[in-house]
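Section 5: illustrative case.
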C-alpha cells in the first residue's frame, strides 16, 4: 500500500507540474495583449486583434494593466471615418462612428488591476460595419509612469455558408481539352488550390459543405459528419474525398446537386450563403430541377424561384459548344445568381484564357468576397524561359501591393508538378523558406504570408513584391497574387442584360478606399472574343465526334467539339482576339464608364478588369484585377432561311441567324414549345446544326416556339412553315393585283359589248 501511495504521490506531482506549466503558458499567452509596465519600450508595441465578424458578437478579451492605479481610453479612431474621441474618451463609450452604427461599447473598470472590456450592444456588431478598421489607445498609470498601448481590429464581412457542388458524371473522365490530364484530375487540383487559398482567409464562424452529383446528388464519403463544417482547417476534409472513394461515373443531375446544396443551408439574415457549382455539361437527367436557359431569367424551367431568401450561385463550366455557356450565363444573371461577372467558363481551346479549373475557382472566390477579402492584385500568364544555371529555368514577376495589407497569397498554377516558388522578396528581405507557409499540389503551388506572425521581418506591405518561379521545363504557368484587404472596395460590371451579337458591352466601375471615392484611377477592360462563331464552325466542319460516356450522354455539339480540339486548323480559327478600352471617370455619378462595340460573333467572351491608382502617400499604389466569362448570344433567327419543314407532327429546321451564321449543334435541350397542349416529345440533334422535333398534343393550336430563350415563332404550331409570314392575301400588292385584274376584266367586257 505504501508503495502504491508513494507512486501515486509521484504521479500526482508530475500531473501538478504539467498543469502548472500549462497554466503558466496559458496565462503568458493571455497576457500578450495586456499593458506591461516592465517593458522598457513602454509605450508597448501595437497589438492587432483578430478580425471581428459583422453580424456576430465581439470576441476581443478583457485587457488589463497589472500594477496600474488608473487606466483610460485616450483615443478611438475609425477608418474610414476619422477620430471618434480623444484624450480622454468617456467610459463607457458606445462606438457610433463611421458610415454606420457599430454597436461596440468600451468600458474601463477596476480597482487594481484596471480592466478595459469591449462588448456588443443588441448582441451583435451591426452587419453594415463590415469594412471598418477600429484603432484605440489605452493609457495606464502605476503611480510612477504612464504606459500606453494601441490596439487595432477590423470589422469584416458577415460569416459565410458555402457549398461546393461538383460534377462527377462519366464525362469528367474525359481528357481536359487536348491535354492528357482528365477533367476529374484537373478538378481535383483546382479544388485543392481553392481550399488552400481559402483557408487563411476563412473566419471563425464560416462554414463549408460539399455535394457531388451524377445520376443524383451524392454525399461526400468522408470528412463531413454534419452537412456544414467549420471552414477553417477544412482543407483535408474537402480534398480527402478525391483520393479514390469518389470517381467519375453516371449521368449529369446538375439541378439535383443544386437542390441538395440549398437544403444544407438554413436561412439566417446574419449570414451570407453561396453555392459554387461546377459542371462539364448540361443536365441530362429529366426531373423537376431541370437546369436550362429561360426567358424569365430563372435557373429552372418552372416559374418557381430556386430560393425565396437570399442565396447566390456562382457557376463554373467546361466547354464552349452548344447551350451550356448560355445556361451558366443565365444562372449567373438570374435572381439567384451572383451577377453577370460571376460565371467562369473554361473553353479548353488551348489558348491562354482557356485557363485551368484552379484559376476559375480563385476568380469565383474573389467574386464572392470582392467587397471583403481576399482580393486579386494581379495575374500574369507566362512561360519559364530565363536560364538559371543549375536551377533550370526561372521567371520573375513583380506585384504592387498597397498599404494596410497584412496577409498575402501567391499562387502558381501549371500542368507541371516540378514548378516551385523559390523566392519572395520585399525591399531586399527574403521570406522563402524561413517565413510563411508553402503548400503544393500536382498542378499548383500556394505560398501564404502573414505579416503579423511573430518573428516576421519588419517590412511595410506597400511597394513591389518580387516572386521567382523555378522549374526544369519551359512550362506555361499562371501566377496570381491575392491580399487581405477590408478597406478597398470595387465593383466592375457590364449590366445584367442578355448580350447578343451587335449589342455593345457598357462597362462600369467604381473604386473606393473606405468611403472615399478614388477618382484618378486607370481602369482598363480587356475583352477576349472568339476568333470565329463556334456554332457556325461546328455546323460546317466534318468530324467523327468523340464517343459518348456510358450513362452520361453528351449532345452531338459537345462530342464534335471535343474531337475537333485535336485539329490545329480548327483551333486557329477560334483563337481569341484581344481588344481593350480605358474607362472614363464621370464626376456626376462617380462612375468609370466605357463601351465596347466589337460583339460581331456569338460565343464565350472572357473579360478582364484591371484598376491601377497613382502612388499615394496615404494609400500606396492600389492594383486590382477581376476576370469573368459571359456568353454572347446569336442575333435573331431567320426562320425563312432555316429551311423549316413541318409534316404531321414533326418540325425540322437548320436554324440560321440574321448574320448568316448557323446556330450549330448542341442546342436541342434549349428548344421549347409553349402551347395549351402541344409540347415537345423528342428532339434529335443531327450534329451539323439540323434539329428534328417531334411534337405531341394538338399541333393546330396557337403557341410559341423558342430556341435559347429567343422566340422564333408565334402562331398556329402546324403552320410554322407558312405561318411565320403573313398569308399572301394580307399583302397590299395582292389586293392591287386583284384591283388591276378587275379593271382589265371590266375594260375587256366593255370592248366586247361595243366592238
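Designed sequence:
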Amino acid at each position: 500500500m505504501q508503495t502504491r501511495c508513494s507512486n501515486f504521490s509521484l504521479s500526482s506531482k508530475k500531473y501538478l507540474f504539467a498543469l502548472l506549466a500549462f497554466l503558466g503558458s496559458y496565462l503568458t499567452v493571455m497576457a500578450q495583449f495586456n499593458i506591461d509596465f516592465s517593458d522598457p519600450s513602454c509605450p508597448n508595441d501595437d497589438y492587432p486583434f483578430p478580425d471581428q465578424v459583422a453580424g456576430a458578437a465581439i470576441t476581443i478579451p478583457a485587457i488589463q494593466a497589472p500594477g496600474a492605479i488608473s487606466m483610460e481610453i485616450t483615443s478611438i479612431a475609425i477608418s474610414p471615418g476619422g477620430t471618434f474621441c480623444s484624450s480622454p474618451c468617456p467610459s463607457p463609450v458606445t462606438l457610433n462612428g463611421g458610415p454606420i452604427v457599430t454597436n461596440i461599447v468600451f468600458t474601463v473598470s477596476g480597482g487594481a488591476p484596471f480592466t478595459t472590456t469591449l462588448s456588443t450592444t443588441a448582441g451583435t456588431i451591426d452587419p453594415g460595419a463590415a469594412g471598418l478598421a477600429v484603432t484605440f489607445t489605452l493609457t495606464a498609470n502605476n503611480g510612477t509612469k504612464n504606459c500606453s498601448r494601441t490596439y487595432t481590429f477590423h470589422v469584416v464581412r458577415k460569416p459565410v455558408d458555402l457549398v461546393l457542388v461538383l460534377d462527377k458524371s462519366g464525362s469528367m473522365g474525359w481528357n481536359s481539352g487536348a491535354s492528357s490530364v482528365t477533367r476529374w484530375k484537373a478538378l481535383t487540383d483546382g479544388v485543392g488550390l481553392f481550399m488552400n487559398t481559402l483557408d487563411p482567409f476563412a473566419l471563425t464562424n464560416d462554414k463549408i459543405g460539399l455535394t457531388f452529383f451524377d445520376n443524383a446528388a451524392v454525399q461526400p464519403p468522408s470528412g463531413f459528419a454534419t452537412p456544414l463544417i467549420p471552414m477553417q482547417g477544412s482543407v483535408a476534409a474537402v480534398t480527402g474525398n478525391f483520393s479514390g472513394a469518389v470517381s467519375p461515373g453516371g449521368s449529369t443531375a446538375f439541378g439535383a446537386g443544386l437542390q441538395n446544396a440549398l437544403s444544407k443551408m438554413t436561412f439566417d439574415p446574419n449570414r451570407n450563403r453561396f453555392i459554387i457549382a461546377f459542371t462539364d455539361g448540361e443536365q441530362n437527367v429529366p426531373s423537376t430541377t431541370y437546369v436550362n436557359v429561360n426567358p424569365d431569367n430563372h435557373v429552372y424551367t418552372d416559374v418557381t424561384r430556386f430560393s425565396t431568401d437570399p442565396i447566390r450561385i456562382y457557376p463554373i463550366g467546361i466547354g464552349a459548344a452548344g447551350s451550356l455557356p448560355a445556361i451558366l450565363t443565365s444562372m449567373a444573371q438570374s435572381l439567384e445568381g451572383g451577377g453577370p461577372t460571376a460565371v467562369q467558363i473554361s473553353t479548353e481551346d488551348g489558348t491562354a484564357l482557356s485557363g485551368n479549373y484552379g484559376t476559375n475557382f480563385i476568380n469565383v472566390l474573389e467574386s464572392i468576397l470582392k467587397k471583403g477579402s481576399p482580393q486579386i492584385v494581379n495575374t500574369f500568364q507566362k512561360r519559364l524561359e530565363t536560364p538559371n544555371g543549375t536551377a533550370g529555368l526561372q521567371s520573375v514577376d513583380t506585384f504592387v501591393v498597397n498599404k494596410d495589407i497584412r496577409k498575402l497569397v501567391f499562387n502558381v498554377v501549371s500542368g507541371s508538378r516540378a514548378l516551385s516558388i523559390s523566392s519572395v522578396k520585399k525591399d531586399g528581405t527574403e521570406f522563402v523558406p524561413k517565413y510563411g507557409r508553402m503548400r503544393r499540389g500536382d498542378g499548383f503551388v500556394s505560398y501564404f504570408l502573414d505579416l503579423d506572425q511573430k518573428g516576421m521581418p519588419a517590412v511595410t506591405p506597400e511597394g513591389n513584391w518580387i516572386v521567382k518561379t523555378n522549374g526544369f521545363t519551359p512550362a506555361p504557368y499562371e501566377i496570381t497574387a491575392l491580399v487581405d484587404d477590408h478597406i478597398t472596395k470595387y465593383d466592375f460590371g457590364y449590366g445584367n442584360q442578355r448580350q447578343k451579337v451587335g449589342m455593345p458591352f457598357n462597362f462600369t466601375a467604381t473604386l473606393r478606399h473606405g468611403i472615399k471615392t478614388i477618382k484618378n484611377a486607370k481602369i482598363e477592360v480587356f475583352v477576349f472574343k472568339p476568333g470565329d462563331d463556334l456554332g457556325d464552325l461546328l455546323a460546317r466542319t466534318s468530324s467523327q465526334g468523340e464517343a459518348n460516356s456510358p450513362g452520361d450522354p453528351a449532345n452531338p455539339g459537345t462530342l464534335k467539339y471535343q474531337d475537333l480540339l485535336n485539329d490545329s486548323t480548327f483551333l486557329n480559327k477560334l483563337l481569341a482576339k484581344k481588344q481593350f478600352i480605358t474607362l472614363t471617370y464621370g464626376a456626376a455619378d462617380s462612375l468609370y464608364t466605357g463601351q465596347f462595340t466589337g460583339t460581331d460573333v456569338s460565343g464565350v467572351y472572357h473579360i478582364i478588369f484591371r484598376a491601377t491608382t497613382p502612388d499615394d502617400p496615404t494609400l500606396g499604389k492600389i492594383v486590382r484585377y477581376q476576370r469573368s466569362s459571359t456568353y454572347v448570344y446569336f442575333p435573331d433567327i431567320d426562320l425563312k432561311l432555316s429551311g423549316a419543314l413541318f409534316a404531321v407532327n414533326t418540325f425540322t429546321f437548320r436554324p440560321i441567324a440574321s448574320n448568316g451564321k448557323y446556330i450549330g449543334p448542341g442546342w436541342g435541350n434549349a428548344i421549347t414549345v409553349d402551347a395549351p397542349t402541344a409540347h415537345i416529345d423528342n428532339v434529335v440533334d443531327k450534329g451539323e446544326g439540323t434539329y428534328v422535333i417531334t411534337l405531341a398534343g394538338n399541333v393546330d393550336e396557337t403557341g410559341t416556339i423558342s430556341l435559347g430563350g429567343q422566340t422564333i415563332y408565334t402562331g398556329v404550331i402546324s403552320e410554322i412553315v407558312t405561318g411565320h409570314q403573313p398569308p399572301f392575301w394580307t399583302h397590299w400588292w395582292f389586293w392591287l393585283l386583284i384591283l388591276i385584274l378587275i379593271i382589265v376584266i371590266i375594260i375587256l367586257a366593255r370592248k366586247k359589248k361595243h366592238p
